[in-house]
Write a structure and sequence with these properties.
The complex is a heterodimer. Chain A is α+β, with helices and mostly antiparallel strands. Chain A has one helix and eight strands, in the order αββββββββ. Chain A has one helix spanning about 1-20; strands at about 30-35, 40, 50-55, 65, 80, 90, 100-110, 115-125. In chain A, the strands form two sheets. Chain A has a four-stranded antiparallel beta sheet, with no helix packed on it. In chain A, strand 7 (about 100-110) and strand 8 form a beta hairpin. Chain A starts with a helix and ends in a 5-residue tail after the last strand. Chain B has a single domain (about 1-300), classed as Beta Barrel (Porin), CATH 2.40.160.40. Chain B has helices spanning about 215-225, 295-300, and strands spanning about 10, 15-20, 40, 45, 60-70, 80-95, 95-110, 115-120, 125-135, 140-145, 165-175, 185-195, 195-200, 205-215, 235-245, 255-265, 270-280, 290-295. Chain B has a twelve-stranded antiparallel beta barrel. The chains are: A alpha+beta, B mainly beta.
């Protein structure tokens, strides 16, 4: 009885370990962290928006665009990967006045899986 | 498929057998939109749920799913503890349409009796994603289950008669809420509603269920970085309601379980665990448990899985 009861759980553990040590890096690319932070507030207009993803990206099929509250695009449309970090997607920014901005991203990981997302950040100058 | 993944045992003819559970859902039909694989609707990732079925017709492999539940004494027979080791495999055949098969190997121990083991009836499924709206993170699907009578072992109470269960599935996440409700945005609800059509004199059962989940990954990645460290930011707490309501032929009262738990997402797999809490005395008196490993086969083998056999996704 004890052996029978433990076999299913051993099977599950073995399966988890097997897939956990897969050497292939292919998978969907999800946002790992960003600058400015997701939902964050900054006191200075950011010169770039940086998003780090969980997988390396295909540059030709990955993009960021930033829009203001009126829907106007306010980035410089030069989205590109980091020089040495292919999980980093960067776009340059124009000078932003105070306000809330939406970052829309869509990326394709190196194994061709597509993901997309968006988040907001706020520019609010520090009160003197 | 998970409507047939039985979560509690009911005695029949002195032997334990597992009765199917189900889910209720209110469909939200919306205009068709582009499809995304792997459980995505727009920006929102709907995780594969454990004890109710999700509305996606994608490549999936659940191996193994392990549960334990003790059913109450009924029909003159003793209470029975059942360990269920199951699997499920689904494959997208053409865009938005998938076929699947699932099986459960049962270890049944009636009180005061010897253990009984064997396969339950196998279940085949078909599912089609009918509508999807990415901006509003909503999806609606239709499908059917075929419990193949006679494919399992009568020793564990597998039926000789088949059961067909036409089913509807739906899902809605709340990422489209205004920012004033931003901490509600990571919530999603999915559900299923089906009706058993047995080929025998067994009752017609309404199979229904709901999953209510809160996506911490969605919170961190798309709403507010609250600084959650890993592994917590990769977790999705949820509660599922898995029910079966006899409609006729003296089938008795509604039975089922309420299943609180958590899912943990990695690059290649999801592991989840839930408690199985009987909703009434007819469902049982003891809390059971289930754990499941969902393997993201489209991520591990992207050249083999993650796209339809015939045709191409948008």
């Amino acid at each position: 009885m004890k052996m029978i009861k433990t076999i299913p759980y051993r099977l599950m553990l073995a399966a988890i370990l097997f897939f956990a040590i897969q050497s292939q890096a292919w998978a969907h690319a999800f946002l790992d962290h960003a600058e400015p932070k997701v939902g964050g507030t900054v006191t200075n207009s950011p010169s770039v928006i940086k998003i780090w993803f969980t997988q390396e990206l295909e540059p030709a099929f990955s993009n960021i665009e930033v829009r203001d509250a009126r829907g106007n695009e306010v980035d410089k449309r030069d989205a590109h990967l980091g020089d040495k970090d292919k999980t980093l997607l960067i776009v340059s920014m124009a000078q932003l006045p105070d306000g809330t901005y939406t970052v829309n991203w869509h990326v394709t990981s190196v194994d061709t899986h597509r993901t997309q997302g968006h988040f907001e950040f706020t520019v609010k100058a520090a009160q003197k | 498929m998970k409507n047939k993944k039985k979560k509690f045992a009911v005695l029949k003819n002195g032997r334990g057998w597992l009765a199917a559970s189900g889910a209720v859902f209110t469909a939200m039909g919306m205009s068709a939109n582009s499809a995304c694989a792997h459980g995505f609707v727009g920006d929102y990732f709907f995780p594969p749920t454990i004890t109710t079925d999700d509305p996606f017709a994608t490549d999936e492999l659940k191996l193994p799913s392990v549960s334990y539940f003790k059913s109450p004494a009924a029909g003159g027979g003793p209470a029975t503890g059942t360990t269920d080791v199951g699997f499920e495999f689904d494959k997208e055949i053409f865009p938005k349409f998938a076929l699947g098969i699932s099986g459960d190997y049962l270890f049944q121990k009636p009180d005061g009796q010897q253990q009984l083991t064997g396969w339950d009836d196998f279940v085949m499924s078909a599912k089609y994603q009918l509508w999807q709206n990415d901006p509003h993170q909503a999806i609606f699907s239709v499908g059917a289950l075929w419990r193949i009578g006679g494919s399992g072992s009568s020793q564990v109470g597998a039926d000789s008669a088949s059961v067909f269960t036409p089913t509807i599935y739906g899902g809605k996440a709340f990422g489209d809420l205004p920012d004033s409700l931003k901490y509600v945005k990571p919530i999603a609800v999915t559900g299923t509603l089906g009706v058993d059509l047995p080929t025998s004199a067994e009752p017609n059962n309404l199979q229904w269920g709901i999953a209510l989940e809160y996506s911490l990954p969605y919170l961190q990645e798309q709403v507010q970085d609250i600084g959650l460290p890993r592994p917590f930011r990769d977790m999705i707490p949820l509660v599922e309601f898995s029910m079966s309501s006899p409609l006729n032929r003296g089938g008795g009262q509604t039975t089922g379980t309420i299943n609180p738990g958590v899912l943990y997402e990695t690059k290649y797999f999801q592991i989840g665990a839930e408690a199985l809490i009987p909703v009434n005395s007819a469902s049982g008196h003891n809390v059971g448990a289930i754990a499941q490993l969902e393997i993201f086969i489209d991520d591990i083998w992207p050249k083999t899985f993650g796209f339809p056999l015939i045709g191409r996704d948008n």
